[in-house]
């Protein structure tokens, strides 16, 4: 569970100590990344000998982070203080481009009292 002073982000459908006061809808963040020619070339060479392709791992991590940041921004614009049941998905748009999507349920949480 990611938590900051602004928002809670969790893959769970609840947060211990809180209850859902209002469901605001689906929050979504999307990014599309290109696999550059240099990275593809190095990846091709590395695939011959095997092992992790660090250029693609770095790109995938940046894409995941960007999609999540955009999902959080979307949730905040809806008035949410949490995003629950967060999922990530990816799609290959072409031989050189990938789409990464982060989505979850934007909610308002209140302390259980």
From TrEMBL:
This is UPF0145 protein B9Q03_04940. Signal peptide: none annotated. Gene3D superfamilies: Hypothetical protein apc22750. Chain B. InterPro entries: UPF0145_dom_sf (IPR035439), UPF0145_YbjQ-like (IPR002765). Belongs to the UPF0145 family. It holds the Pfam family YbjQ_1. It comes from the Archaea.
